[in-house]
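Re: export button greyed out
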Amino acid sequence: MTEPGRALFVPVLLGTVRQGRMSLPVARLVVSELSRRPGIETELIDLARIPLPIDDAGQAIKDPTFSSQMSRADALVVVSPEYNHGYSGLLKHALDSCLEEYIHKAVGVVGVSAGPYGGTRGIQDLLPVLRELGLVAIFWDVNFSAVQSVFDEAGALRDRAYLPRIDKFLKELVWMARTLRHGRESIALE
Amino acid sequence: MTAMICPECGIEMNHHAEKLVYPSGPHEASSVDPVLGGMIEELHTCPGCGSGASRRAEPTRGG
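Workaround output, generated via the alternate export path:
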């Protein structure tokens, strides 16, 4: 169903800067699947392109472009690879640079790993951080296990089973984004 | 406190959230709400254009 009025803006944050990162085709796939949906605008936000200093932290290093993207967003997809059983340190660094931009907005996490667990350990560590930032996490994740075998050398999806999983994930995310937008705009805190 | 007005639409924004935040240094120590242990940031969203705004709430009284 298409909602009349303003489109929902649902950017995809690629949560790693590592050279050769296999999360890049994952993020591009999610952007592509989001783009097919009516009433949705999206874009890929590459952590490696956010110019954040590393000699300070938190909102003191807020990047105006990233802040503007988060302010405009109705929901956020975080593509989070698992490194040493956790999410990337620079993802936390970037997320911490904003706060009010996130509040009462939906978030979903796509986990990525070279091993068999699809980034689940990183997701579990990330969820309490997202909650403290004011984001509302959905109960669907997408887990890319053995990601090096999921895409071909050109970055095309080999395993089509991921498409219905992404579809379920995005349906829930969009529902939550619409509901929270209605709440932000129309339901006052008592 | 008075309602926030959207600078774009000129209409009253919806006050939908209050977030407890903590002082970033000694310069904000005097702003800490003694009852809540931090400072309250109010979040407002415009029903017309969806833009958001925030402001620091006044400390609570009592406790």
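The mean pLDDT of chain A is 96. The button fix ships in the next patch.
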